[in-house]
Specification:
The protein has about 375 residues and is of the alpha/beta class. It contains twelve helices and 18 strands.
Length: about 375
Amino acid sequence: MRGDVPPRMAGRPGFTTGACAAAASRAATLHLLLQVPQREVEVLLPDGKRYTFAVHACEGDLESATAVIIKDGGSGPDVTHQAHIRATVRRLPDAKGIIRLEGGEGVGRVSRPGLPVAVGEAAINPTPRRNILENVQEVADSWLDQHGLLVTLSVANGELLARRTLNPRLGILGGISILGISGIAHPYSTSAFKATVVQGIQAAKEQQAPAVVLTTGGRAERYAMDFLPQLPGVAFVQMGDFVGAALQALNQHPLPRVILVAMPGKLVKIAEGRPNTHASKGTFNRDFLVDLALAAGFQNREALQKINTVAHGVEILATVGLEKIFCQHLVAATQATLLHQLPPHTRVGVVAFTLEGALLAHTGEDAWNLSAG
């Protein structure tokens, strides 16, 4: 696998910001030591394998060298795809054996607790930090007998790119984060998404948010933020389809209040206790929906037995004015399910919206009434 930037193809993996930073750091170090511009560089990544990256630019002198890697994010959605990751390596004559790693322009800085990097430090996560230092150490071993090295990472337009990430909400200011567990970015990576959910819940806990608001996507989150303006941005966590991962994280990092905001289609699956609500994990339970509709006063069981989606069922209920009563039963059932899966004494609220943002039903008002103890 090479680090140059081929055309994007469906399902094609790419590289993380951490992997590109390691490649740039290694290339710059080689230039400084050999005084030869590097056109490509082989890098050891955290997954234990070596990969070759094309070096977009490389220049320097006897005191310092800079290399640039253009990030290939693969075929998945990636804000930092084609970002220019730059490493400048400078000689430190009075720091024998020392490698220092710092963040420069376009690399965020942590301003709040709850993240794996200390407040005030550059947002370079522990795994990529170790990997960058490991690569520099590997090629500069003999040099370090006489000198030290300062590695400074920067990202062109990093501050602008960061506005399209969760960094501002998490308290990472001024740029993007240098991230990556394995160094490889897999399209729609389940593990990466779960890790983001867990990190969001940890940050809400550490920053003492009065509640955490779980949403099933960007649209639900926008509606949730409008509905709950009294809560800080760090309280809102997009869990997507990963209900089980979010609940597991909340059992490990409990908060006093948990609020779930979603549309009826997702709520039906969550109320049933499904740990993953993605369509590939199964369709909704029609009998469960019918039982809720009957409890809401709907009498035409046969009409609901023919529906293909929850939204279709809600449309049928709306023809007789029962959609909001049905959704009230639905949020109550969802609340009961969550209460059984969260730590004792957790206050749980559930809010249902239409796809267009109209409020359908809610329950557990004490979960967002911050004055209620």
